[in-house]
Amino acid sequence: MRIRKAEIADAQAIVTIILPTIRDGATYSLDPDLSEADALAYWMGPDKETFVAEDEGEVVGTYYIRPNQGGGGRHVCNCGYMTSSAAVGRGVASRMCEHSLDHARERRFRAMQFNFVVSTNEGAIRLWQRMGFDVVGRLPDAFQHPSRGFVDALVMFQTL
Questions:
Q1: Is the pTM of this model over 0.85?
Q2: Does any domain span residue 144?
Q3: What pLDDT sits at residue 87?
Q4: 82: closest CA among 23, 27, 30, 18?
Q5: Of 7, 23, 31, 76, which has the highest C-beta tally within 10 A?
Q6: Does 84 reside within a domain?
């Protein structure tokens, strides 16, 4: 598997990964009715560096990295990750997380923070904990899950 910076030519492959997750509404606090153009603008916005994971030339995952805050908080980064449904369980998210941690260190970020991990996204939580993240906060009933109602969101953090 190879991870590289995303290019404009990757836009359609990225959309095919991010739109189903956004539409599902179970793991990201994005409007499920977000247009394709707006979803892509969010994922590949000028405030982010966006990457793709390729397996045998096929884009199977994508992530972005950005400063979590401006000013005095810009030394902490934030990331978002999505994997194609066909690639779930193949280690794509693990590999993207490893890459993002290495990239964050290269960019001299001092920590990585996930601001809003939906508590029902148990696979992601286990992965992030395995990758060294701690739960540092719980936001009660902060997310309205499409089938489970109001559920907690977690803040996860790792010093780099």
A1: yes
A2: no
A3: 83
A4: 18
A5: 76
A6: yes
